[in-house]
Amino acid sequence: MKNYMDKTLFNLPKRFILTALTISFSFYTAAQPVQEIHSAINRSNTIEPAAINTNVQLLERGHWDNFNREQINALILKYGKHNPHYNPAAPAYIVADFDNTSVFLDIEEATLIYQLENLKFKVTPEQLNQIIRKNISAQNFVESYHNAAGQPVNIEKIAPDIIESYRWLYHNYAGLKGKQSLSSVQKNHHYQNFITKMRYLYAAIGDTFDHDVSYPWVTYLFTGFTAPEVRSMVKHTFDWQQQQNIGPVTWTSPQSLPGQAGVVSVTWDNGLRPYQEMKNLFATLQNNGIMVYVCSASFIDVVKEMVSNPDIGFAVNAENVLAMELERDHEGRILPEFRKGYAQTQGVGKSKMINQFLVSKYHYGPIFIAGDSEGDQNMMQDFKDTEKVLIINRLRKPNTDIGRFSKLAVETYGQQDAKYLLQGRDANTGQFIPSNKSIAYGSSTAKALK
């Protein structure tokens, strides 16, 4: 490690040893017995259990897998401010993904549903036509996106249908340029046609084209919004999602408006939930003087609202977010152009942004990474200073890096030098379970690997 502690006192390579160390502990939660403190100290491989008073906050038990919790607590003891060689001018830091890592499901996708259902747009039909076609070639979408008649669909077929329905809504809905209420326009078939084919298009693009095409596409739908307007919509989305049941929802476009694309259907996941353990993790790290950053493939203002709004409870500074960025006009309105000088925060782009904004600042990498998907697998392995990697177990395919890391986590489970920690969840409840195994939606059987 570089510059984590004062080098005149303490050289901090990965395998440093501290002796004759007195630690003060103070627990802000009552359920942390002294034997747990000793256990975390012993697992840190860096600290001898000396005189134990009261003065450190470690992770609440929650629904953590116990081994994962012990390993993270040991990391906190090793790099936190109660270590006498802690240097506040050069603190350790961690980087966590957000969607499906800090929360169950995806806040960007949930916001898209809210935006569609409530017709929250600030563009003309002509502008929307340009936006939904941006960087999308005319090749057919993959076979699973054929229409109800089994025919292939592409952007040249679906875009005219979307714009025809949006034009009707644009000129009739009072929230755009018309006079009718939302409940009134919702009764017209153009409403269901528009929201279904838009959500279908988002899914089809994601499964047909490379991530560098599909990931920015959804952010362009914020064109014309200001940051406060996006953040307000995200908070409304979050509040609405807390009232929704967890499970899949299927939309089908009306047969009365087949258009050029025909009748199509799309299924999306409902019921976003925050992981309480991740809230506690972020709070505990920061209370111990370890910096917390979030690196997400969602739009920057979406993530800023989620991590910094005190009513949501992640308690991370909005300035500590690295995410998808778009250009803005002189009045702060979002433009459908990716921000120059910024990498897309997915795959290798996450590592690029961490290097650009964090490694350049601290001159060392993150000690801990948390993620769940292929979009996180680069940052999980690109920094030599990273000691632990938390993987939220979504039962990923074994032929991906994230799948291989998950397998390695299972193989090294219980070993003190384990780098990868696999954390289980229950997709029926949207919460962690105290295991490295996960339960898929509709199942009651926990599995470690796909």
From TrEMBL:
One of its GO terms (cellular component) is cytoplasm. Pathway: Amino-acid biosynthesis; L-serine biosynthesis; L-serine from 3-phospho-D-glycerate: step 3/3. Its cofactor is Mg(2+). Residues 1-31 form the signal peptide. It is an enzyme of class 3 (hydrolase). InterPro entries: HAD-like_SerB (IPR050582), HAD-like_sf (IPR036412), HAD_sf (IPR023214). GO terms for biological process: L-serine biosynthetic process. It catalyses: O-phospho-D-serine + H2O = D-serine + phosphate; O-phospho-L-serine + H2O = L-serine + phosphate. Keywords: Amino-acid biosynthesis, Hydrolase, Magnesium, Metal-binding, Serine biosynthesis, Signal. GO terms for molecular function: L-phosphoserine phosphatase activity; magnesium ion binding. Its EC number is 3.1.3.3. This is phosphoserine phosphatase. It comes from Acinetobacter apis.
